Amino acid sequence: MKELLKILRCLLLFPLSLVYGLIISIRNFCYENGILKSKQYNIPIISIGNLSVGGTGKTPHTEFLLKMLSHEFSVAVLSRGYKRKTKGFRLVETSNTHFESGDEPLQIKRKHPDSIVAVSESRTKGVEELLKLYPDLNLIILYDAFQHRKIKPVLQILLNNYNNPIAKDYLIPLVM
After folding, report:
1. What is the per-residue pLDDT across 29-72, written as a single tens digit (0 to 9) for each?
2. CB 151 within 8 A of CB 36
3. What is the pLDDT, as a whole number, of residue 5?
4. 7 and 58 share a domain?
5. Are 77 and 143 part of one and the same domain?
6. Residues in Cβ contact with 98 at an 8 Å cutoff, skipping those fewer than 6 apart
7. Same domain, 23 and 53
8. Is the domain of 57 the same as that of 102?
């Protein structure tokens, strides 16, 4: 029965994965050929992301970089704030709930209370707001931003789950 469900799932979701892959390919083509533009900022931006859905260690890696780099730089972390109920740009406070800021940004802020952590569904607006609020800021870490192409980072860190090699992965929505 389990195998039958897996086959049915593949038959139903595989065509949607092909459509998704086509859309992503067109989008990437547009960015790579200058039809859609990426913005660069005057400060270094590091993007942390993954190819697989969940569980690759983005949050601990972001916390590691924040701790390591905050001795040399004035660092901020910017996230979309996935699953938060608020909209727009928002600075994360240790007293926030996950509904206000999202789980991961709140975890980062609580573990590093003196750090600057913000959320914004628009990464470009978020970066610009951070630069306005903190003119001495000289490094931004974009959390979960590998697929984000509107900002051109100086460094992209791509994480993968060792136990789930990407060669065995499928495109969304056909995630096994």
Report:
1. 999 999 999 999 999 999 999 877 767 889 999 999 999 999 99
2. no
3. 77
4. no
5. yes
6. 83, 84, 106
7. no
8. yes
How many domains does the structure of the chain reveal? 2
Residue with tokens 């990407």: 166
pLDDT of residue 174: 66
Q: Tell me: do 13 and 70 sit in the same domain.
A: no
| pLDDT computed for residue 175 by the predictor | 64
Q: Which domain holds residue 10?
A: 2-34
Length of the chain: 176
Buried b / exposed e across 131-153, counting CB within 10 Å, b at 16+? beebeebebbbbbbbbebbebeb
Residue 166 located in a structural domain: no
Read off the pTM: 0.88
**Nearby residues of 5 by Cβ (< 8 Å), 6 or more positions away:** none
Residue 72 belongs to a domain = yes
Question: What residue has token string 């979309």?
Answer: 80
Listed as ranges, residues in the chain with pLDDT below 50 are: none
pLDDT score of 65: 97
**Could you give the angle at the alpha carbon of 72 between the alpha carbons of 70 and 74, nearest 5°?**
55
